[in-house]
Design a protein that fits this description.
By secondary structure, the protein is an alpha/beta fold. The protein folds into 2 domains: 202 residues, 2-enoyl-CoA Hydratase, Chain A, domain 1 (Alpha-Beta Complex), CATH 3.90.226; 65 residues. 49% of the residues lie in helices and 15% in strands. The radius of gyration is 20 Å and the shape is globular. The protein starts with 10 loop residues before the first strand and ends in a 19-residue tail after the last helix. The structure holds coenzyme A. The site of coenzyme A has 17 residues, from helix 2, strand 6 and helix 5.
């Protein structure tokens, strides 16, 4: 029999060389999301978001799972037993940190090491980029236990996949592996599990070289413009860049200077050298 894990132990993290490695930490429960885990994840995201030591956040899972979705016992059964207020509280706590992650200040990467089910699609979608183990298994298993893919999971499927794939995925309750998840649009790349962390570290290191104000403006723009007309998007992008300039007016000038005057890099082939930036 396993002893009950304390709330503060449901999420683990370390910060190394600018990368925050955050893990779902209930491996004995396949990292399914309980109210305790949801509350603790919000605390951890809060703590790391404006920490100067953190440039990129990676979300992964301890053990064999990334996340087996919502906790059927602690999230559904026990919170429902408290009445509508319990259900709404559980939803606020989970949807709340996923929303926080969707609009996170720092770039975020999902490193999907294993099982990823149902409610797990919320944080998967919330991360800007996603890399999976080929061995990972993705599934909208809700239909297998008698509900629709809620908690945003249906929206995630239709946003990321073509309609026929999303429909099949939601109705059939079959799992797909990492490679298929790439083909269907759920993740960027799939690699053998043994190589996953190295690849994610390399991607994070590239992001650490970029201008952080521009990265935040870019990731928000990619999420926002999909729902806009061309004209609205054009206008939004002008305003988003001008707002970004008020936070960082030196970075892009340095970027122009190193290309046009110094000829030390080409923006089409890589990023400017941030370390030479004054102010
Ligand atoms: N909710 C509650 N408990 C869960 C869970 C979930 N979503 N996923 C796993 N667990 C628990 C199991 O009940 C078990 O608990 P126990 O040791 O107290 O009996 C423990 O985690 C280990 O799970 P187990 O099923 O033995 O692991 P496995 O490696 O054989 O199988 C899965 C892994 C992910 C295939 C299987 O656990 C599963 O199907 N989970 C549910 C996935 C799901 O439908 N999620 C959608 C929720 S919206």
């Amino acid at each position: 029999m396993t002893t009950e894990r304390k709330e503060e132990d449901t999420v683990a993290y370390t910060v190394e060389n600018g990368i925050a490695w955050v893990s779902f930490n209930r491996p004995e429960k396949r990292n399914c999301m309980s109210p305790k885990l949801n509350r603790q994840m919000m605390r951890v995201l809060d703590k790391l978001e404006f920490d100067d030591e953190v440039g990129v956040l990676v979300l992964t899972g301890e053990g064999s799972a990334w996340s087996a979705g919502m906790d059927l016992k602690e999230y559904f059964r026990e919170m429902e037993a408290l009445g509508l207020g319990g259900t709404r509280q559980a939803q606020r706590e989970s949807y709340g940190w996923w929303r926080r992650l969707r609009w996170y200040q720092k770039p975020t990467i999902a490193m999907v090491n294993g099982w990823c089910f149902g409610g797990g699609y919320g944080p998967l979608y919330a991360c800007d980029l996603a890399f999976a183990a080929e061995e990972a298994q993705f599934g909208l298993s809700e239909i297998n236990w008698g509900i629709l893919p809620g908690g945003g999971a249906t929206k995630v499927a239709t946003d990321l996949m073509p309609m026929r794939k999303a429909m099949y995925h939601a109705m059939m309750g079959e799992n797909i592996d990492g490679k298929t998840a790439v083909e269907w649009g759920l993740v960027n790349e799939a690699l053998p599990l043994a190589k996953l962390k190295d690849r994610v570290t390399a991607v994070a290191n590239v992001l650490l070289e970029k201008n952080p104000v521009a990265l935040k403006a870019t990731k928000d723009a990619v999420r926002r413009v999909g729902e806009m007309t061309y004209d609205n998007a054009e206008d939004y992008l002008i305003r988003a860049q001008e707002a970004a300039n008020s936070y960082d007016n030196t970075g892009r000038k340095e970027g122009i200077k190193q290309f046009i005057d110094d000829k030390t890099y080409k923006p089409g082939l890589g990023a400017y050298d941030k370390s030479k930036q004054q102010g």
